[in-house]
Specification:
single chain, 478 residues, alpha/beta, TIM Barrel, M1 Pyruvate Kinase, Domain 3, Pyruvate Kinase, Chain: A, domain 1, 3 domains, six-stranded mixed β-sheet, 18 helices, 21% strand, elongated
Length: 478
């Protein structure tokens, strides 16, 4: 089950794709990881999907990554009378307690918003379809002017792009969902509503290494702390849906590139998400613009591209995954792809592990090696190899299935669970055997192997070995 592309496909499961048969079909079509969205479905439903993924994983013998996406705080207006329409230029009053709502005002049951806003603050309702500007505010009210009017119905979302809200990223529901996710041993947790580095730090403290934490960049305020968030998070997600609500949509492509570049420089997986093949919810083929959107993310060097409604509720989930797979393969075969990827490289950090990894790429490309083989326990060596974006495949060998699963989201990494090497001879024999069995190499091909001595010691990548499949092991014995 070796992929012939480097970028990974993350597919969201839902009513259209929850069965074990469909999960197997999605994986065989190209899905490397599955997203379980805690905004929808009960814990019982999520557990059932988790169990089915693990059943498929065992059947097919390949590590499959599972990402749980936390809902995050939901800010909404209260009940509004049917057929309410806000007129441009009209006054509209938001109050902590106001029921029922109509064209003159509505309830906004979030005191944190009133604490943060001031005259001139923008409020966006219903994914930005209605735009209000605060004229006057107090601890429990805000008088606003309608800048962009339109229909407004009950419980529509509220976005406040101009300020940092005194709202924690983890709501009470998120904390319950996070505890549940940890009981399942999921591989990644995606954190919504990130505004500051402390949001990520709090979640990582709770997770305590049991999963990797991915910060969803969906709030403009997070962009001001992007470097700090990158430092503390294990990965990033470019959540373009909310970014496109809270920022002018024309700015989102540039921000996507900046986030992708920051994650690549840090050697941390970055996922590009939201509406990538949106039309395939209802149609068996995407628009040309959607294909270009996926292709651009691949050209930028994103670790993974994500399907949401296309695979969760759409009529063509398998076709959507297969389309992403084909687009990625086509882009990576394009002569411009390597130029674009190489342009995003940076100088390695001044550590022995980074120096060894850089040398592994250079040696592998010079010798036209069949693969770079990395031994790793924590996965850090695999991520370093992925950051280099080499022209040759990356084969990661680890004794921990948890590491193999987490790395399934990393660019170009093919993970195999195997015992750690015990000697130089065992290191070469094991790497050669796995490279042959996984169809990366054949007798006579060369491998570039990185590992750490003493063997089995985490964080000790300090050797590089060039080996020839089928001959090197015999030479070692003699």
């Amino acid at each position: 089950m070796r992929r012939v592309r480097n970028v990974k496909v993350l597919a969201t499961l839902g009513p259209s794709s929850a069965s074990e048969e469909m999960i197997r079909a999605l994986f065989e079509a190209g899905a490397d990881a599955f997203r379980l969205n805690m905004s929808h479905g009960s814990h019982k439903d999520v557990r059932a999907m988790y169990d089915r993924i693990r059943s498929v994983e065992q059947e097919l013998g390949r590590p499959i990554c599972i990402l749980v996406d936390l809902q995050g705080p939901k800010l909404r207006v209260g009940e509004v009378a049917p057929d309410t329409v806000l007129e441009e230029g009209a006054s509209f009053r938001l109050e902590l307690k106001h029921s029922p709502g109509d064209a003159s005002g509505a309830e906004l049951p979030h005191k944190e918003i009133f604490e943060a806003i001031e005259p001139g603050t923008s409020l966006l309702l219903d994914d930005g379809k209605v735009h209000l500007e605060v004229v006057e505010s107090g601890k429990d009210y805000a008088d606003t002017r309608v800048i962009v009017g339109g229909p407004l119905s009950s419980n529509k979302g509220v976005n406040v792009p101009d300020v940092t809200l005194p709202v924690p990223a983890l709501s009470p529901k998120d904390r319950r969902d996070l505890d549940f996710a940890m009981s399942l041993d999921v591989d990644w947790v995606a954190l919504s509503f990130v505004q500051r580095p402390d949001d990520v730090a709090e979640t990582k403290k709770i997770v305590a290494g049991r999963a990797a934490v991915m910060a969803k960049i969906e709030k403009p305020r997070a962009l001001a702390y992007l470097d700090e968030i990158v430092d503390i998070a294990d990965g990033l997600m470019v959540a373009r849906g909310d970014l496109g609500v809270e920022l002018p949509v024309e700015q989102v492509p540039g921000i996507q590139k900046a986030i992708t570049r920051a994650a690549r420089h840090a050697g941390k997986p970055v996922v590009v998400a939201t509406q990538m093949l949106e039309s395939m919810i209802d149609a068996p083929v995407p628009t040309r613009a959607e294909v270009s959107d996926v292709a651009n993310a691949v050209f930028e060097g994103a670790d993974a591209v994500m399907l949401s409604g296309e695979s969760a509720i759409g009529d063509y989930p398998v076709e959507a995954v297969a389309m992403m797979d084909r687009v990625a393969q086509s882009v990576e075969a394009d002569e411009q792809f390597r130029t674009a990827i190489n342009a995003g490289r940076i100088e390695p950090e001044t550590t022995s592990a980074d120096a060894i990894t850089l040398a592994a790429r250079q040696v592998a490309e010079t010798l036209n090696a069949a693969a770079i083989v990395c031994y790793t326990g924590s996965g850090s060596t695999g991520l370093r190899a992925s950051r280099e974006r080499p022209e040759v495949p990356i084969l990661v060998l680890t004794p921990f299935v948890e590491t193999a699963r987490r790395l399934a989201l990393a660019w170009g990494v093919h993970c195999v669970e195997t015992e750690d090497a015990t000697s130089f001879l065992d290191m070469v024999i094991r790497a050669s055997r796995v490279a042959e069995s996984e169809e990366f190499a054949k007798t006579g091909d060369r491998l570039v192997i990185t590992a750490g001595v003493p063997f089995g010691t985490p964080g000790r990548t300090n050797i590089l070995r060039i080996a020839t499949v089928g001959t090197e092991a015999r030479r070692e014995r003699n």
